[in-house]
Amino acid sequence: MGNEQLLTVSDKQLIDRKVIQCIELANQFFGKNFSMPTVKLNQRGRAAGTAYLQRNEIRLNLYMYQQNPKKFIDTVIPHEVAHLLVFHLYGSKVRPHGREWQNIMSNLYDLTPDRTHDFTPKPPSQLFEYQCSCQKHTLSIRRHNKVKQGAQYFCRNCKAILELMNPC
Ligand SMILES: [Zn+2]
Ligand SMILES: [Zn+2]
Q1: What count of Cα atoms within 13 Å lies in the side-chain half-sphere of residue 66?
Q2: Annotated catalytic residue 80
Q3: Which end of the chain has fewer surrounding CB within 10 Å, N or C?
């Protein structure tokens, strides 16, 4: 896949440090010992980040990070970490940006619980990210439009239906 954007070592350190800080705050606040998530910088498209709950992983959009690193670190990382915390605390039946998530954003991280962000997405590559149960799939705009018209594509590996990844 290859990340075409460059990331300096200190950028990665800043990102990692913020993730650690968000988890440590949560540990103190909830009296728990949340495990450190995996952080990847391969988020594409319109989403600033995505939280993979089962894998305890967050993916961040490097293209958007570079537009305003400080703001990205201050808002997007807590946003995504909060999704993981909600999952660990309440399971997967609560709404992604529901009351539990909003409470963590405002009470723990002292942030406005915004679902959206105002970073600019990379110009469309005409590719869309889908997921099954085991991996990420990239669909062309032609296939993506077919899905919108009701077509279904399946993963050859896990046989699950491909679903468009949720941007947030
Ligand atoms: Zn699969
Ligand atoms: Zn979100």
Answers
A1: 12
A2: yes
A3: N
